[in-house]
Every structure is written in C-alpha cells, then in structure tokens.
Design a protein that fits this description.
Low-confidence stretches: none
CATH class: Alpha Beta
Strand order of the largest sheet: 1-4-3-2-5-6
Largest sheet: 6 strands, mixed
Distance between the termini: 50 Å
Helix content: 25-40%
Structural class: alpha/beta
CATH topology: Nucleotidyltransferase, domain 5
Strand content: 5-15%
Bound molecules: manganese (II) ion
Length: 207
C-alpha cells in the first residue's frame, strides 16, 4: 500500500488489469481556464499513482492516455462529469467506459441529499477521509505530503464503493438506468466544454 508520484506520465505496466479508479486535480472549476495539474489512478489493489503535470506541460502522456482510452477498462469516478471534461480538454481522450459513484449514489440513496465523496465513504465503508486539501494549490512545483495523501485518498475507495452501489442499484431495479446515465457522461462533459455548462438542454424552458 503506497502512494507513487510520477512526473508527466504513468510508467508502463504499473496497473493490474481491470477497472481503474480515476480522479483529477486542477487549478479550479473552469476547465479551459484552470489547467489540469494531477491525475490520480488506482487499480484497487492498494497502491495509488499520482501523475503530475507541470505548468506549461504538453500533456504528452502516452501510457496514461492508453489506460484512460482503453475501452476494455472501466473507469471509476466520483463526479465523472468534471474529470471527463478535464481529461478530454487537456489529454485529448474520452476516459470511458464510466462508473460514477456520485450518480449511482443519487439513484439509490434517495433518503439523503449528501452525495459528496466524504459522506459516501463514511456511510458505505465507515472510513473517514479529509477534504482539507481540496482547494489547495495543485499547481505548486512540489506537492506536499498532505496534498499527496488527499489526492490518493480520492481514488482509494472507489472500487469498494462501486461494488456496494452496484448491489444497491440492482436491488432498486435501477442498474439499466444508471448504465444509461454513465454512458451519457462523456457527452455531458462535452456539453460543459462546448458552451452548455449549467444549461439543461432537456428542459422545456427555452432559455
Ligand atoms: Mn480529488
């Protein structure tokens, strides 16, 4: 169980086959303005890999892109919409197929409106994660220990949560609906990037 920090790309062969948990850290919430600083990735076996991109990076990361674009590898996210947009904008790949624990949570945990990662990890797994470094300077040339641990913890529990949420989706008869939502997420991310960020194009409202 270790956290590995890599510069500009993932080394070849560090991930076991199968689904990977993915998260990103950026300079902010406006994707085209706020550069991608870090991609975290884990195969769920206990290690987390952090790939840091420096200011002025060309985002030439063939190993990371190959994993993200691999159609045979499911990508697990919490709020995939944001990560998919950042990855598509900066790395130029659509990181699908998708399982989003936030969407799954909204479809089964209808008894609460608390769908943040911290709340979900606490309820489903009984573990505590810190969100203290969420809005720290991810563009710094050296990431401190607290940032590395925070970044790693964001992908540490996604496999376990996917398994629990998949059972709950099945129980509530919403597996197919969830899958349809996951399949739509790359298009939702494209809408964000192409000018419809908060606009619901399915709404009856014409504005
Ligand atoms: Mn994160």
């Amino acid at each position: 169980m270790a956290v590995y920090l890599h510069e500009e790309d993932l080394p070849e062969g560090v991930l076991a086959p199968g689904p990977v948990a993915v998260d990103t850290e950026t300079m902010g919430l406006i994707t085209p303005r706020d550069r991608l600083c870090l991609v975290q990735i884990s195969d769920g076996k206990g290690d987390e890999h952090l790939v840091r991109f420096a200011a002025g990076s060309t985002f030439d990361a063939p190993n990371l892109k190959a994993v993200l674009a691999d159609p045979s590898r499911e990508k697990l996210y919490h709020f995939a919409r944001f990560d998919l947009a950042a990855i598509e904008h900066y790395l130029g790949v659509v990181a699908a197929p998708v399982f989003c624990t936030k969407i799954a949570s909204k479809l089964v945990r209808t008894y609460t409106d608390r769908h943040g990662l911290k709340d979900l990890v606490r309820e489903l797994l009984g573990k505590e994660i810190s969100k203290q470094q969420q809005s720290s300077d991810w563009g710094a040339s050296e990431l401190n220990e607290a940032q590395r641990e925070y970044a790693a913890s964001d992908v540490r529990y996604l496999h376990a949560m996917r398994d629990i949420l998949a059972v709950r989706l099945q129980r509530e008869g919403r597996t197919d609906l969830a899958q349809a939502c996951f399949d739509f997420l790359p298009a939702r991310a494209r809408l964000d990037l192409e000018g419809w960020p908060e606009h619901d194009i399915f709404s009856h409202m014409s504005a």
